[in-house]
Amino acid sequence: MDEFHIELLDIHWLKDTPEKIDLCAHGQVKVIIGKETIVEQQEDDIDWTLNAMALHLLRTLESNHLPENLVGEHLIPCCGHHIDHIDGEQTVSIQGCFTGHNWWVRHSSNTIELQTLSNNIVELPFNNYKDEVLKFVDSVKEFYNKSKKKQLPDDDYDRTGYLMFWNEWNNRRAKWK
Prior knowledge:
Helices cover 29% and strands 28% of the residues. By secondary structure, it is an alpha+beta fold. It has 3 helices and 11 strands; from the N terminus they run E-E-E-E-H-E-E-E-E-E-E-E-H-H. Helix 1 packs antiparallel against helix 2 and helix 1 (50-60) packs across helix 3 (156-174). It has one domain.
């Protein structure tokens, strides 16, 4: 079995929201680290905000994700209600609720150490981690590419945040071609 695996189980737009105005991809994933399942789909389970998850994981390709230095509140966030940004900055902050899943990501030379919240630790080659992250990121992006063109928010701040989200995503993804 792989030491780190992300499986996209379901991806969709909100049922009661027109596709062109739902800016967040929602769905279910299964994440396994070592022999521990971090999250998997269950009946009536909440949907995760998969585009925010993908961006957070892209950030972990360059940065640690540790309690004292988070790349996002959760690697798998429930919600992404609002995208905050600061003029002149290249990154956004996705604000959601307090629900989500985490594990810790620590870089070391050419390896990545993943530590679950129950303190299981797995060390794997960076390239294995990177390939799994990019496979997930590309699956989420493909969902957006096949969807209806998005109607940008009317509010300048929200529109800028959404555009900055995709600029950050595309810039981070382009580093790993």
